[in-house]
User: Fold these one by one.
Assistant:
Number 1:
Amino acid sequence: MNDKALPRHVAIIMDGNGRWAKQHMLKVALGHRAGVEALRAIIRESSDLNIDTLSLFAFSTENWRRSETEVAALMQLLLEYFMSEIDELDENNVRIRILGEKDGLPAPQRRALEAAEERTKGNTGLNLCIAINYGGRQEIIRAARMLAQKALSGELSPEQIDEKAFSDCLYTAGLPDVDLLIRTSGEMRLSGFLLYQCAYAEFLFPETLWPDFTLEDYHRALEAYAARDRRFGGRTWSNES
C-alpha cells in the first residue's frame, strides 16, 4: 500500500471479547486473553507500516461497573501484558503512552504502566497509546481545568486559548488527530473514545469480533480508508461559476 494513503493515526475500540467468549462457551476472561493475541499482530503490523500512532481503548472509566471478577481479570491481564511484551516493544522502537488517569489504578498496574512509559520515552517509532481508566469527557474537562489554571496564574490570557493550546492539554499532546477509527463487533458508537481527536476521523465498524480480527481485516480497513474522500469541511467539486 502507498505510504501516502496510510492514516497517520489509527484508533481502535477492541470490542467483542465477551461475545467471542460466549460463542465459544468460555469464560469472559478467556475472551480478553484471545483479544490480546489479536492485538500483538496489529501492533507489529502498524509498526512495520510506519504508522505514526496507534491508539487502543483498553479500559474505560465506565468499565469499573463490570463484575469484580471481570475487572480483576482485566487488571491481571494488563499486568501480564506489560511484563511479557515490554522487551519486544522497546526493541522495536515503540514508544508507549498511557491515556487516562493512572492514579486510579491498583498500585502494581500503575507502576507497570509508568515503568513502560519511562523505558520507552526515547523511542522514535510507533506511538502506542493505550487508553486505560480513560473517559473522553473526563479528558476534555481535565484540559479545560488545566487551561483555567494557566489563565488564573497569568501563564496565558483567555485570548491565547486556541485549538493548539487546548490540544496541548490533552493526553495526546503532540500527536496527530485520529485519521481512522475502527470499532470491531459491529457496534456503531464511540463510547467516549478520543472525542476531541476524532473530529474529522473516518469511521469503520466491521462486524468481526475483536479476537477474530486478523491482519487481512486490518489491511481491508486501511484500504477502505485510502479510498475515502477526506474533505475536512470543504468539497472536491463546485457548482459555482
Number 2:
Amino acid sequence: MRTALTAADLAVIDARLTPTDELLARAYPGDDGSRQPVHTVYVAADRYTPELPTVWGRAALTAVDAAGGVEAVAVSVSLDQEVAAAVAPGVRSKLEREPIEDLRIDFEDGYGDRGDDVEDADAERAAKRVVAAAGAGFAPPFIGIRIKSLEVATRARGIRTLDLFVTTLMEHGGLPDGLALTLPKVSTVAQVEAMADAVAALERAHGLTDGRLRFEVQVETPQVVLGADGTAPVARLPLAAPGRISGLHYGTYDYSAAIGIAARYQSLEHPAADLAKGIMQVAVAGTGIRLSDGSTNLLPVGERTAEAWRLHARLVRRSLERGFPQGWDLHAHQLPTRFIATYAFYREGWPEASARLRDALDRTPGAVLDEPATIRALAGFVLRGVRCGALSTGEVAEGTGLDEPTLVALAHPRRATS
C-alpha cells in the first residue's frame, strides 16, 4: 500500500509526543493490582493492643447476636431476604476470622496533645505491640499510624512520632508488610513534599529500599482541593511525591467544618463532600493512588443502634457505587454493617459481572457490548469481591474460568505487561 507520510514525518510526531509518553509512564502507571482493604479502623494510640482486632470482632458478634443474628441485621438494613441469607454466613465468618482489614493507630484527633513524654512512650509502645501482633498472628493485613499534621504547631511532634514508630519497628524486627502511614490535614503540596523528604530520610537511616515507606494523604481542607491560585493542588500530588502516596482519604468532619457546613448536616453524602471527592477521583485516576471515603459519627450503641446500622449500611453501599471501595470505621459495632453492605454489593453484582466477563472473553454476543475498559472494570469488581471474602475463588473459577492472577492481569493490564 502507498502512504504519504515519510519516516521523517513520523519521527517529528514521535519527538513531539515523547514528553507525553514519559509523563504517562511516570505519573499514570495504573493500579499495581495489590489488595486494597474495604475499611480503615481508627483507634487512639493508648488504646491499641495486639488483641484489639479479636476484641472488636467479638464485640461485633455480640451486638449482632443480641439483634437476632447477622441475617436479621441484614434484613433490618433493607437487604432483600434472599441476599441477607446469602451474605450472613460469610459476614459471620469474616467477623470471626478477620474483623479488621486495616488498622490505624491514631496520634492525631483521636489522641490529642498529651505532652511529649507521654506521646514518645506511646509511639514506642505502639511499634512494639505491632511487632508482637505480627509475630503472634493477631495483626490485620494492614496496620500503621496517623501522625499529627505538618502545620507549624504540630510539625515537630508529628515527625518525631513518625521517627520513633519506624525506628522502633526496625529495632524490634522490621516493618510489617502492610505498613500504612497517614498524613492528616494536608493543605499544600509542600506539606506532602516534606513528608516525602521525611520518609526518604528514614529509609536512608535504616538502610531501607527507596520507596519502601509510602503514606496516605487525608483530604480534609478546602485548600488542597482548590488552591489560592485557582488550581487543584490535589492533582499535583502524584508528581510532587512520585511513588510515595498510597491513597487519598476524605476527612468528613474537618472538611465539612472548614467550609461552614452546620454540624447537623456534616456527612460524607453532603453535596460539598461529593464535589471534593469527585475532584479527588479525577485527580488520581490512573496513578495507582487508592481512594477512601470518610466516616460517619452516628455509632450503633444504645437506643440508636438500629438507626445507626441502617445509616452506616446505606453509606457504605453509596460509597461503593460511587467508586470509593474503602471507608472508615470508628466503633466495633460498625463492623457488621461494613461487611453486610460490602458483601451484598459484590454478591448482588456477581451474576451479571460473571456473565458479562464470560461472554466477553468467549466473544459470545450478549445484550451488552462491553469495551475493553469495561472488561477491566468487571474483572476489578470480581477481584475486589474475592479479596474481601464476598466471593470465593472456587465460584469465580466455576463461573468465569478465571483464577486470581488472571483477574489481576485483566483488571490491571498496564502493570501486568510492564
